[in-house]
Every structure is written in C-alpha cells, then in structure tokens.
Amino acid sequence: MSQIFAITNQKGGVGKTTTAINLPASLVAMKRRVLVVDLDPQGNATMGSGIDKSDLNLSAYDVLTGKCDCNEAILHSEEAGYDVLPANGDLTAAEVELIELKMKEHRLQYALAEVKKNYDYIFIDCPPSLNMLTVNALCAAQKILIPMQCEYYALEGLAALLDTISRIQKVINPSLEVGGLLRTMYDPRNSLTNDVSEQLFEHFGDKVFSAVIPRNVRLAEAPSYGLPALVYDRQSSGAKAYLALAGELVRRVEGDKASTDTALETV
Ligand code: ADP
Ligand code: MG
C-alpha cells in the first residue's frame, strides 16, 4: 500500500523542495519505489531531479486539468532513481482553470489513484501558499510532512497551517493526519533553535522527527546539477541527515521490522 505525503508549509524557503528531492532519493537507496509530484509552478523539484522543466511534453498541469492521464506525464529520473510528475509555469494556469472544473479539490487524488499501486511512497512538493494546488495535495495525501526552520515566527506560521489542516479534515479529507514535523537548516549552537525545538516537542511530542537536517552547503549546491545530495556528495552531512530521516520514516510507516530488514540489506 502506498503512502502519500504532502510536503507543506505556506512559508517559502523552509526546505520543502530540498526535502521533496532528498528524502525520496534516500528511500530509493532503501529499495523503495517512489514518485515525486511537483505541485509548485516554479518547478524546482523537477529541475532538482535532473528534469528540464522547459522541455516537458506533459506536466502536472495537463494531469490536473484532465488533458492526459497521470501515467502519461510521469517521467523517470535516472539520476535520482525515482519517478517524477513534473511541473513548470503552466501550473499557474491550472490554479485558475481548476476553479471552473468539477470536483476541483479532488483532481490530484483521482489522478494518483491510477498510479499509486506502482509506488511505496508518493511525495507532493507544495507551493508556498495555501492555494487550490495545496488543497489538491492535502486532499490526495494521507499524511502531511511539515519542514520548518526553528526560528521565532515558525510557531505562528504553524498555527495557521494547522488551522487549514483541520478545516480540510472537516470538509474533504477526514483521514488526513500530520505525519511529522521536520526541523531543517538546524543549528544546535543557536539557543533560539533549541528553545523553538523544545516548544515543538511540548506541543507535538513524537510527531517531531528525531532526525534533523543541518544547514549544509551541499544540499544547496546539488539542485544546480540536477542531483540529490546523496548522488552529488554521498558523504555530506546533508545526505546523511536525509538518510537518517528516511530510516525514521520507514520505521514509523512500516514498523521496526521492515527498517531492520532494510538496514541489513544495505549493509
Ligand atoms: P522551499 O521549497 O520550502 O521554498 P527550498 O527547499 O527551496 O525551500 O530551500 C530554500 C533554499 O534554501 C534553497 O536555496 C535551498 O537550496 C536552501 N536549503 C534548503 N535546505 C537547506 C539546508 N539544510 N542547508 C543549506 N541550504 C538549504
Ligand atoms: Mg519549494
């Protein structure tokens, strides 16, 4: 059974796309079958997976507006090892066109229903706003993964996001749950980071991943080569942190046995 995660935070620059590239690449290293859905018109997850957004025959736009089937638009990234439903600027138009369409909140959910049997994990990289594209992601997903920086306003932004989530739960997707909070660009030497981190644990307990993603220049460089950090520099602290996160996610989703088996396989 596939698990569908929406990687969401309406704040930009918190590491959503970096997570949408590097967590899947780590799961591929653990022999999981993964699809990355790029739902941001900026197409950063597409480019960062080594797929040229200016050279797409079909994209998430065509899928959402019913111009093609999902499997026709999906591409395989040789570099990253996962499949991608790519996006580019066309997706901006989808937001407007969706409003006219029937079942506008459910378009992605129905599209993924066709292909989800092919994957163990599907990750949706959301745009930095709570618009109709994000609503489609929250409607299609079982779980939300929230990357966040441990800074002063982070908790305030989180409150707005949790409010949206609870409205989506009430109206369209009652089974949606928070799958985890991920602390990104983490600097343990910063006392504010530690304060915010503590508050997160107080409010969200074990929803907070123990794995943290440090600030690491390799994570910022890798997308310009169209590669996940794991391929660009396997030894980097960023690549290792995303591997640890993947291990933790697999334990949460599949239970302890599955992840021990995987660890033994990869030794
Ligand atoms: P979002 O998708 O939430 O807008 P991105 O993943 O695009 O955020 O990250 C914003 C910027 O920060 C990008 O330039 C990215 O390369 C950089 N970045 C993200 N995570 C890290 C990290 N852990 N260490 C260093 N740079 C990072
Ligand atoms: Mg992004």
If you had to describe this structure to a student in words, what would you say it looks like?
This is ParA family protein. It holds the Pfam family AAA_31. Residues 3-178 form the AAA domain. It comes from Reinekea marina. The chain is an alpha/beta fold and 267 residues long. It has a single domain (3-258), classed as P-loop containing nucleotide triphosphate hydrolases (Rossmann fold), CATH 3.40.50.300. It is 47% helix and 16% strand. It has 13 helices and 8 strands. The chain has an 8-stranded mixed beta sheet with strand order 3-4-2-5-1-6-7-8, sandwiched between helices. Strand 3 and strand 4 form a beta hairpin. Helix 12 (237-254) crosses helix 13. The longest helix is centred in the middle third of the chain and has 18 residues, at 154-171. The protein is globular, with a radius of gyration of 17 Å. The two termini are 26 Å apart. It binds adenosine-5'-diphosphate and magnesium ion.
